[in-house]
């Protein structure tokens, strides 16, 4: 039987305060008053009922490390939900209200089971985002639909306009402040019969990572079936993260849904505007966008108007008519004559905020009409006059509360208490709401509030006039409160507003290692820009932070080098007097010099530098020193690798991945595991590599709430996993992984690729998908791949000649051309790639280009098959021998297996079949333990001929050989046992069919064939059908293969 709770704390609507009961009888105790803490020390539990009706049980519990803390409990569907509250001294009504609301939301039905009018207010997905390891949580109040005030006047005419506006994908509500934009959008959203997502914007959203985090949270709330894994923010490619959710919505939405962005005028960042344009250009069919703003956003509005995709509600539409002015003044408790109503409309021009302000002033007038007849002034004078009249009617304590809290963007009781030095801040906010003093509630629990923007501005102007000296101190109080709550970003913002740059620098010093590791470069740069340069230069920590900004904001390595030189000068200046403080900057400089030494193959000097830096950081336990140490160890492992000491490279990465925490998310952790995976793959340990490539999935499952998850890195790891699955011929599983990747890198939407970027990841993704489809007998992805590189050749160019791409993008193209039988095109790459068969690789650093060299070997083999007397086969053997020696020296089994396999194919083409079988047999013996399949199967008919006679030449099992043979694409399978036909077909191809066959060989679709030959689509399909029948093959791939066998191509 549950234990009875004798004490109850609950909100009373009748007396508008909290009360405490003992066994149903009210106690003589004022909650949160002077005796409140003493009472809490004497009790161990009580039940709580919030203002919204949410309830829970509150218990005091001791913990092992000492001390007592309060926890909230609520039973739901047979499970007991638990939530940490706080210490006794910090048990405030705001905290109780917040936690009770969370526990009751967890008990509520899922959004898919609720009516839309209810679902639009749920925040289950954003709660998931907020409850995880992410140390800078999203403020859920910004995703809440604003509540309509009691004095709100409904506007059916404008609601109809908003509904009609959904004929296009964008509705713009643009008008000056105080015109009623937010309330109109909120009323429409509250009455909508389909999902609506709300996002209230603020100036901090000019950081693209922060804006994207909130935007994704809003989009995900539209359909609770959306997987939360595609919510990370990536400072490099934010469009990829947004594309993932848009793809989900496109797939899941079966009826209209709307995203509302309010206060968009606060955003001035070009990067954020670009992200909005991307969203608008790629909205799913059923998704609509509404924007509330004071100024028109930088969008292609003229084009949207012409395309009838834009609906606009502007100042003229929003102005109150006489009947609406009368309705508003009546709800505010003022009965005016028709003459006074007309005058009020005349003075305010239907401006809603002005009507409200002037109506408040009229409450103190005996003759409203006379006052309005004599009232004159512009908006500025009007607001100044009313600020005095409204404030003059309040008590001195209320005036002080209003003025002091006007510096806050958002307010809650404890924050107001900390800023004003007064008490009962939560009660005061509720009183202001009821008194219509331009306060809006931000959540259903009435915990967070904000002032009307113009009212707050008026209050701040008044405060600046009356008490200018107190303003910096108020900002500092807000900063200290946010710091105590763990909201370091807000703490830093308010320190900067206070002009306390040393404090802001101190906060930023603590915060920036986390920002760097988690990708908040935009916000970090925003803060650094506000600090005096001298303060940054003289701070060892901030002097490190500054260079991180240049690659992301300046886009030039020269700027970064200048920053490091600047840091080096200041370090030399201060190091004599304060050497200990400059250990971290010295380590960063050492890392830069070590990287330079590596590029010049001076490994011994690089090792010496890294060792020196690591030793200097050994005794330091700061977050900054730990971050730098991790980067140094990553660099050390790479140096071990390029110098050939792979055992040390592996051990360094193992040590690093073991020591690193798995939460919060660390990009260094992911890099260490990824490098290990690449090392294991090269060594032929595919299953060990797979376990490490699985790590991104585990991150996405356990830390999906981290909005800045670097999808670029995650996607590349997923593609490496897909490559392993492909190698094992698990084609369906590989396809599934690639579909995950496409949510972040939508290969079908090629027009979104910026021409100035180098989308290597997208190209690699398309290439991998094309290989999978080739093995399945399809060529759609290959066509998309070839079309992209032909239409956008600039994406293959390397803008920095110093940068070396490990897998040359053009080699990817050549490899795919070989796979699809386009040998002549691949030969053209051979002639221009700059690689030579007699190049001798000596280090792992050179070995990074093995993919390109083995592509060259395949082209030489293909040329030799055409002309066996040609010297290309001998050149291929020379090339392969050079790489065999390096592979054996590094003990890279994966390289060795592929090199031996290609050597066997070369010997076969030379007519040395027995030698080829011996070589292939050894490769198969090495390959079987790790299950290599497609490496052999992708070589097609020549490999099939060798496998048919391989048994006496290998210790690999017959079952393994059979698995490789079974993996042969259907086009080749048809050729294993071809019908007995002569080179001259019984039913020869017509001239037109030969033309169609030639286009098939290029990967052209039926529609492209029809367009090229100026025939109908049905005629093109008929020609393709006849070709397949005459060649006795099941599909297009088989047709191309058979045609080349018959020398028809």
UniProtKB/TrEMBL annotation:
It comes from the Bacteria. Coiled coil: none annotated. Residues 982-1047 form the HTH luxR-type domain. Transmembrane segments: none annotated. GO terms for molecular function: DNA binding. It holds the Pfam family WHD_MalT. GO terms for biological process: regulation of DNA-templated transcription. Keywords: DNA-binding, Transcription, Transcription regulation. This is HTH luxR-type domain-containing protein. It comes from Reticulibacter mediterranei.
